[in-house]
Design goal:
alpha+beta; Ubiquitin-like (UB roll); five-stranded mixed beta sheet; 2 helices; 5 strands; globular
């Protein structure tokens, strides 16, 4: 995953959330619940080659289908490339 504003690539191990991996890389992400309910960590997806795996309860089904945003606290991606607006 690439963080556009921070200009860094971040590896996401299978046992970490996107949010945990981003934090481990030293980038701050706003969050509250870490459960995919509140929407505070809502993040724009700038580029995607693959699919997002939405595990949140915040985005509508229509928003999930668009693939333009993700809740990094609980959601994941199966992809070759993911660029987030962070």
């Amino acid at each position: 995953m690439f963080l556009a504003r921070a200009k860094i690539s971040v590896h996401v191990p299978h046992d970490q959330s996107l949010l945990e991996s981003i934090e481990a890389a030293g980038v701050e992400v706003p969050y509250l619940c870490r459960g995919g309910v509140c929407g505070f960590c809502h993040t724009r997806v700038l580029e995607l080659e693959g699919e997002l795996v939405h595990n949140d309860h915040f985005l509508s089904e229509a928003d999930k289908a668009k693939g333009k945003s993700i809740m990094p606290c609980v959601s994941r991606a199966r992809c070759k490339r993911l660029v987030l607006d962070l």
